[in-house]
Write a structure and sequence with these properties.
The chain is of the alpha+beta class. The protein has a single domain, classed as paralog of FGE (formylglycine-generating enzyme) (Alpha-Beta Complex). Helix content is 14%, strand content 17%. It is built from 5 helices and 14 strands. Strands 1-4-5-14-9 form a 5-stranded antiparallel sheet. Strand 4 and strand 5 form a beta hairpin. The chain is globular, with a radius of gyration of 17 Å.
């Protein structure tokens, strides 16, 4: 079954770590999120805020981020909010293309993260939320830690920890029921692919797929775009997290930053305050 592996591979000092808290800025995507009927992140209001931390030290990072060395890192993969006709922000569907919508990134902790997104679109979404795509070095440090872990949770693979063991054959073939005529942009961006059972999971649903610092899903679930003009995504996704590298070292650079399909997602970073 060479075609299966070919497509999967394509679709191929101590750190200072601290959980951020509310700092009075508008921070979309707090952990008080739920899955909306469309599958997007429901922030519960038009403009989602970070809430009140109770008057304590807000820390250097926004809510739902942790400080890893010199960068704030989202604790979960990214979702999207979309600018509505009345100017408010509403939950986007994680199964639909961005196209020409105005979007901003949210932290999809407890909700399904956004797939079907290009590296360029992910960068714009992060920037609209006052963040940016992580660099490769930042992403790797978040996944590996200062000690250089092989997986986010340790050095030995646990097949039950992360969403990296898809039980089907190939999600695209499983959805269309054939391997003929489906390896193009239209078919590989079909919203039904990731609505199949056993595909992309809500952020943090795999509770053991977490770093000691509290960052979820750096291995499996969705590929994550990083800031690389040549187009690079990392971490693997639910149906392949080993062809292009083991654990945190998984890296795909076969596409430009304009590429997107059912497997591509993202995560934001930010500079600490």
């Amino acid at each position: 079954m060479i075609w299966v592996w070919a497509l999967l591979g394509c679709a191929g000092s101590d750190s200072t770590i601290r959980r951020g808290a509310a700092d009075g800025r508008d921070q979309p995507g707090s952990s008080d999120t739920a899955v909306s009927d469309s599958g997007g992140t429901d922030s519960g209001s038009g403009d989602s805020g970070s809430g009140d931390s109770g008057g304590g030290d807000p820390g250097p990072c926004p809510l739902d981020m942790v400080l890893v060395d010199t960068a704030c890192v989202d604790v979960a993969e990214g979702g999207l909010e979309v600018r509505d006709d009345d100017g408010s922000w509403v939950a986007g569907s994680p199964y639909l293309l961005v196209d020409d919508q105005e979007v901003r990134a949210v932290v999809a902790l407890g909700s399904v993260p956004q797939a079907y997104i290009s590296g360029e679109e992910a960068a714009v979404a992060c920037e609209a939320s006052g963040k940016r795509l992580c660099t490769s070095d930042e992403w790797l440090l978040a996944c590996q830690g200062a000690a250089g872990r092989v997986f986010p949770y340790g050095d030995t693979h646990d097949p039950t920890a992360c969403n990296d063991s898809y039980a089907g054959g190939h999600p695209v073939v499983d959805y269309f029921g054939t391997s003929e005529g489906i390896w193009d942009a239209e078919h590989m961006n079909d919203p039904g692919i990731n609505q199949q059972e056993g595909t992309v999971a809500a952020g943090g649903a795999h509770v053991d797929c977490v770093t000691p610092e509290g960052v979820f899903d750096l291995h499996g679930n969705l590929h994550e775009w990083v800031a690389d003009a040549e187009g690079v995504f990392r971490g693997g996704f639910y149906a392949d997290a080993e062809i292009n590298g083991v654990g945190c070292s998984y890296r795909t650079g076969a596409h430009t930053a304009t590429y997107h399909d059912y497997s591509t997602g993202f995560r934001c970073c930010a500079d600490p305050s």
